[in-house]
Input
Amino acid sequence: MDRVQRTRAKGSKLPPNTLCVTRGTLFGNGYKIIHNNAESRQTVVNRFRSHINNPLFGWKVKAFIERCEREGIEHLACWCKPDEICHADVWLEIWNNKDISEI
Output
Protein backbone atom coordinates (compact mmCIF):
# COMPACT_ATOMS: atom_id res chain seq x y z
CA MET A 1 0.00 0.00 0.00
CA ASP A 2 1.18 3.52 -0.76
CA ARG A 3 0.03 7.12 -0.59
CA VAL A 4 -1.12 9.23 -3.53
CA GLN A 5 -1.87 12.93 -3.69
CA ARG A 6 -5.34 14.16 -4.51
CA THR A 7 -5.58 16.97 -7.01
CA ARG A 8 -8.26 19.27 -8.32
CA ALA A 9 -6.79 19.27 -11.82
CA LYS A 10 -9.43 18.89 -14.50
CA GLY A 11 -9.83 15.27 -15.55
CA SER A 12 -7.73 13.86 -12.72
CA LYS A 13 -8.91 10.65 -11.13
CA LEU A 14 -7.70 8.56 -8.26
CA PRO A 15 -6.22 5.16 -9.10
CA PRO A 16 -8.49 2.13 -8.67
CA ASN A 17 -8.58 0.61 -5.18
CA THR A 18 -7.89 3.92 -3.45
CA LEU A 19 -9.23 4.94 -0.06
CA CYS A 20 -9.60 8.66 0.51
CA VAL A 21 -8.37 9.62 4.00
CA THR A 22 -8.84 13.38 3.72
CA ARG A 23 -10.41 15.51 6.45
CA GLY A 24 -14.15 14.92 6.55
CA THR A 25 -13.83 11.17 6.02
CA LEU A 26 -13.89 8.57 8.78
CA PHE A 27 -10.13 8.20 8.48
CA GLY A 28 -9.26 11.90 8.15
CA ASN A 29 -7.12 13.94 10.51
CA GLY A 30 -9.09 16.39 12.62
CA TYR A 31 -5.95 18.25 13.69
CA LYS A 32 -5.09 21.23 11.48
CA ILE A 33 -1.70 22.58 10.51
CA ILE A 34 -1.49 26.17 11.74
CA HIS A 35 1.87 27.16 10.24
CA ASN A 36 2.78 25.32 7.07
CA ASN A 37 6.23 24.22 8.15
CA ALA A 38 7.87 20.90 8.99
CA GLU A 39 7.58 21.39 12.77
CA SER A 40 3.87 22.16 12.68
CA ARG A 41 3.23 19.28 10.27
CA GLN A 42 5.15 16.88 12.53
CA THR A 43 3.19 18.10 15.59
CA VAL A 44 -0.13 17.51 13.85
CA VAL A 45 0.88 14.03 12.70
CA ASN A 46 2.09 13.19 16.22
CA ARG A 47 -1.24 14.34 17.66
CA PHE A 48 -3.09 12.16 15.18
CA ARG A 49 -0.82 9.20 16.04
CA SER A 50 -1.53 9.66 19.77
CA HIS A 51 -5.24 9.99 19.06
CA ILE A 52 -5.48 6.88 16.89
CA ASN A 53 -3.34 4.81 19.30
CA ASN A 54 -5.71 5.62 22.18
CA PRO A 55 -7.58 2.40 23.10
CA LEU A 56 -10.86 4.31 22.81
CA PHE A 57 -10.28 4.49 19.06
CA GLY A 58 -9.34 0.86 18.51
CA TRP A 59 -12.65 0.49 16.68
CA LYS A 60 -11.45 2.99 14.06
CA VAL A 61 -8.19 1.11 13.50
CA LYS A 62 -10.12 -2.14 13.18
CA ALA A 63 -12.58 -0.51 10.74
CA PHE A 64 -9.66 0.78 8.66
CA ILE A 65 -7.97 -2.61 8.44
CA GLU A 66 -11.20 -4.45 7.69
CA ARG A 67 -12.20 -1.98 4.98
CA CYS A 68 -8.79 -2.12 3.32
CA GLU A 69 -8.84 -5.92 3.32
CA ARG A 70 -12.46 -6.15 2.14
CA GLU A 71 -12.03 -3.62 -0.68
CA GLY A 72 -8.50 -4.57 -1.69
CA ILE A 73 -7.20 -1.07 -1.02
CA GLU A 74 -3.81 -0.41 -2.60
CA HIS A 75 -3.53 3.37 -2.16
CA LEU A 76 -4.43 6.02 0.42
CA ALA A 77 -5.31 9.44 -0.99
CA CYS A 78 -4.67 12.74 0.77
CA TRP A 79 -4.07 16.37 -0.23
CA CYS A 80 -0.54 16.41 1.25
CA LYS A 81 2.45 16.40 -1.07
CA PRO A 82 4.09 12.97 -1.35
CA ASP A 83 7.37 14.24 0.11
CA GLU A 84 5.69 15.76 3.21
CA ILE A 85 4.85 13.87 6.37
CA CYS A 86 1.13 13.20 6.58
CA HIS A 87 -1.40 11.44 8.81
CA ALA A 88 -1.82 8.92 5.97
CA ASP A 89 1.69 7.78 6.87
CA VAL A 90 0.30 6.78 10.28
CA TRP A 91 -2.39 4.70 8.54
CA LEU A 92 0.34 3.09 6.42
CA GLU A 93 2.31 2.24 9.58
CA ILE A 94 -0.82 0.66 11.05
CA TRP A 95 -1.44 -1.30 7.84
CA ASN A 96 2.14 -2.53 7.64
CA ASN A 97 2.17 -3.61 11.30
CA LYS A 98 -1.40 -4.83 11.57
CA ASP A 99 -2.40 -7.61 13.88
CA ILE A 100 -6.16 -7.37 14.11
CA SER A 101 -6.23 -9.94 16.93
CA GLU A 102 -4.61 -7.36 19.22
CA ILE A 103 -7.32 -4.73 18.62
User: Anything to note?
Assistant: The beta strands are 2-5, 18-20, 75-78.
